[in-house]
Amino acid sequence: MSRTIAIAALGVVAVGLGVTAGVLLTGGDDEIRFAQCRESVVVGGADQLGGPFTLVSETGETVTEADVLDGPTLVYFGYTSCPDVCPIDLFRNGEVAHLLDEQGVAITPVFITIDPARDTPQQVAEYTDFMHPRMLGLTGSQEQIDIAARAYGVYAARVGEPDDPDYLMDHSSYSYLMSPEHGFLEFYSRQASVEQMVENITCYANAM
C-alpha cells in the first residue's frame, strides 16, 4: 500500500497508523492535547473526517451519530459477504476492545455496512455478535450509507456482473477512532497491529 493515501471523497491526503507516522498541529486545543498520541496526518485538519448520519441499527432502530458515538468508538466500514479483508480487520478490532477492557478502557467497536442491499439488520447482528459481543452493526438505505461513507472519506464500489448475486465490493479499509467530545481522533490502516492500536488508544484515553 502506498505510504500516502488519498481519501478521494474528501479531497484530503492522510497518513495512517500502521503505514507511517506524522503529526499535524493547527493550534487547536485538541491538537495540543493529543499531540503525543497523534500518529496520522489529515491535511486540512482532523475535523475533515466524521459527520452527521442517520442509519439503522442491528435491532432495527433508526439511530444518528449522536446515538452511536456516545463514547470512544472504533468505526469500520465493510460488508458481511467480504471474503477476507473485513473479517480479519473486524476480528482485530474486537481483540483491541477485549484488551482495552482488561485495562479499564471501554471502547465500542462499530461496523457500518457498505452493502445495504444484502446486509439486513439481522444479517449485520449475526456478523457483529461473532466478532465481539459489544460490536454494533449498522445498515440503512443506500442513500443513508452513502452519506455516512462520504463523511468518513470511505471509497466503496460494487465489482462484477450486475446480475451476479455473489458480487464483491471494492472498498477502503480503515478503522476510525472517534469521540463524542472531540470527534475524529485517529485512523488505523490494515497494517496496524492489535498491540499498536491498544497502545495508541490508551494514549488518547489517558489524555482525555
Automatic annotation (TrEMBL):
Coiled coil residues, start to end: none
UniProt xrefs under CDD domains: SCO (cd02968)
Residues annotated as binding Cu cation: C82, C86, H171
Keywords: Copper, Disulfide bond, Metal-binding
InterPro entries reported in the protein's UniProt record: SCO1/SenC (IPR003782), Thioredoxin-like_sf (IPR036249)
Cysteine-cysteine disulfides: C82-C86
PANTHER family referenced in this protein's UniProt entry, alphabetically: ELECTRON TRANSPORT PROTIN SCO1/SENC FAMILY MEMBER, LINALOOL DEHYDRATASE_ISOMERASE DOMAIN-CONTAINING PROTEIN
Family: Belongs to the SCO1/2 family.
Protein name: SCO1 protein
